[in-house]
Design a protein that fits this description.
By secondary structure, the protein is of the alpha/beta class. The protein is built from 14 helices and 11 strands. α1 crosses α2 and α7 packs across α11. The two termini are 17 Å apart.
Length: 387
């Protein structure tokens, strides 16, 4: 068990844009260099690298560009955004077992100017893999983009629990309000109202444009080392109190429509591990950075994580509860709806800033910060706290 033995000692990012004008390799190198500088470490200190299977920058390519020395640990984690917190978990396990001393976790993508996740991918259905076979069943039915698969879950949620499009819009309004005061956010100074959410065009009913996260260019990297070593570095460490991955019976990317009951049980699997490892519960969380690629999944996460009973999230988030000053501020940086979509990595960076006390939208107190990864897929989560 990791149990506070590892920490995030450095964070770095590029600007977030819709056209970076440079390669994903260069973006990864820039973010990694910034994270090392933030920690007060040199490239030669790094002996481990971890990223997503979907990342196009190989570890050895990044190592060459930055002049790294010998690597004793390198790894990829699959399932898209579900990998975000898991790559930090992998790094923490490498550090706590002595396999590596300093591990950089990175994700770089030109997801607006390059390969756009929100469009139909012929390669996804033609791939000679089990995923390609799975896609071959539902692509002909029109379930060929993420929004279409999430729309199925959203409609079922509305049917079962009486939620409406306005309830999903509450998430958008909160995220955009937070992004509006974050100079690094794409939607800086551009909040939206619930009326504007309701007026935005349909993407796949019941999802509107403002229910869907951005397509962004950029990169984020974080440096993981032992908590002991982190204490002697440039920044106050964000100690990894808990880290977990989770999948569950009947898992099927992204709909999991073989299950009898509606929910995100894989996030429940993650939650139980996090609370057990950290020795706390949802009532102890100061702020939550929840993966918000689509607004309905924020409501489902709140329920699976134990913040409210099943079907009650729409009541839980009412009256500004997830905004700054509410009982559970969510995504103070603006989330993927407001800041940028870097596959969840910018959320981890925000979690670290909250622990350090350096966020532009700092949430008071010294309690733990919860961070989650992609939903609708096998997923992961972190609990971060001060030393």
């Amino acid at each position: 068990m990791i149990g506070g033995a590892a920490a995030i000692a450095g964070i770095g990012a590029t600007e977030f844009s819709k056209d970076s004008g440079r390669s994903e390799l260069r973006l990864a190198a820039e973010a990694t260099s910034a994270a090392l500088a933030d920690a007060g470490l040199r490239p030669s200190d790094v002996d481990g690298l971890v990223t997503f299977t979907m990342d196009n920058t190989a570890e050895i390519a990044l190592a060459r560009e930055l002049g790294l020395g010998e690597l004793t640990f390198f790894s990829h984690v699959g399932y898209g955004g579900g990998a975000a917190c898991a790559i930090v978990q992998q790094a923490a396990m490498a550090v706590t077992t002595g396999i590596a001393q300093v591990v950089v976790c990175y994700r770089a993508l030109n997801e607006r100017s390059g390969h756009r996740f929100g469009q139909v991918s012929r390669a996804a259905v033609a791939a000679p893999t089990s995923a390609g076979i799975d896609n071959g069943w539902h692509y002909p039915m029109g379930l060929a983009v993420p929004a279409a698969t999430v729309a199925m879950i959203a409609r079922r949620y509305m049917h079962d629990y009486g939620a409406g499009s306005e309830d999903f819009g509450v998430v958008t309004v909160a995220d955009r309000r937070h992004a509006a005061t974050n100079p690094n956010a794409w939607f800086y100074r551009r909040p939206v109202t619930l009326a504007e959410h309701q007026a935005s065009r349909w993407i796949v009913e019941p999802l509107r444009l403002l229910d869907c996260c951005q397509e962004s260019d950029g990169a984020v990297a974080v440096v993981v080392t032992s908590a002991e070593r982190a204490r002697d570095l440039r920044q106050a460490p964000a100690v990894i109190r808990a880290a977990a991955q989770g999948s569950s019976p009947g898992q099927y990317v992204m709909t999991s429509y073989y299950r009898d009951e509606l929910g995100l049980p894989e996030m429940g699997t993650v939650a139980r591990q996090l609370w057990r490892q950290a020795g706390l519960g949802p009532q102890d969380v100061r702020t939550a950075v929840l993966y918000d690629h689509f607004t309905p999944y924020v409501l489902l996460q709140l329920e699976e994580l134990g913040f409210c009973p099943r079907g009650e999230a729409r009541h839980f988030i009412s009256d500004g509860a997830i905004e700054l000053g509410g009982r559970l501020p969510v995504n103070p940086h603006g989330g993927q709806l407001g800041e940028a979509y870097i596959h969840g990595m910018n959320g981890i960076a925000e979690g670290v800033r909250q622990v350090r006390g350096t966020s532009v939208n700092q949430v008071g107190g010294d309690g733990p910060v919860l961070v989650t990864a992609g939903t609708g897929v096998p997923t992961s989560g972190l609990v971060l706290g001060p030393d």
